[in-house]
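Revision sheet: structure tokens.
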Amino acid sequence: MADAATGVDDETKKLLKTIFELYDADDSGKLDAKEMFMMMETLGVVGTQTAILKMIRDVDTDGNDEIDFDELCQIVAANSGSTQKGASGISFGSLIERVKKAGPTMVWRTDAIGKGLEVESTSLSCKAGPKEWGVAMTCFGEAGPDGAWLSAKQYSEATCLLELTSLGGDAYVGIAGINFKARDAAAGEWNIELGKSADQPGMAPWAAIKLSTGEVYKKGKPEGGQILSNVQEGDRISYDIDMHNQTATIRSLRLKANSDASAMAEWEEKSKVEIPNLPPELCVAVSLGNNAEGKSTAIRLVGSWCAVVAKSTEAKDVDTGDPGAKQKADPLVAAAQSSGA
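Predicted:
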């Protein structure tokens, strides 16, 4: 039964309270735009300050651009069940549904890791020398071999947000199928450029992008026609993966310059590539190395989300902010796309 004051049921209210307390970083009893931005980032989705402030101002009663717990409940109640309410297609009802459905968070696997790579919390760093490479893979939940990969029967949809905190050498980002193997399984030699052809069965990943050139490779061979252009240190890489349709969209994002140091970070989409025909079970993979000048390369796992989602029989119209167009997509993904994520 919905609470008369907040408009949400007891189960949702309890969940919202947990979320509210988690992201109220300064324990002020209110959420501001930056704290709500952080909530979305942990799910691997980037929103804009304009869109988030619009949602806050729809229910903010005192005009201070912050919301208390009751106001957050009102946002959810107002947007629940609709993909078109909220700013730029962002539905807080959908956001809470995502939290309800969420599986475990993405982590770097520590049992299968290449030369010169180290994992510390969410960060992966590489100090491999010239012509040396190390592969790292992700999974959901456990960091070892028992961690889950993505598949239509298990975790069928996922988002992932990576940040290139330093880029001392070269790097590949990509997707590996479950048959991807170490060069030498006994020695655990996960040392290869993901764009190179395999020297034994299983060594080539499904798809990889070389960040220095933006070139796309499929199974170790160049795949013409798509380029993830102009990626540089400090940029972010966003993944949207749909296992039912066996597709992935990989985007590069860049932080917009802002003279106001107190303003919320704004990320702008620079380019994207679409990868179809994914293998039936996969994970996000990266390859770092070739640090000719000895500078470390590091990638941070900013946020992620995965869930078991039933295959949709009918795509929904999503308001992307363009009055002349509607987009068929998940509302949060559409929001990320229209905001530069």
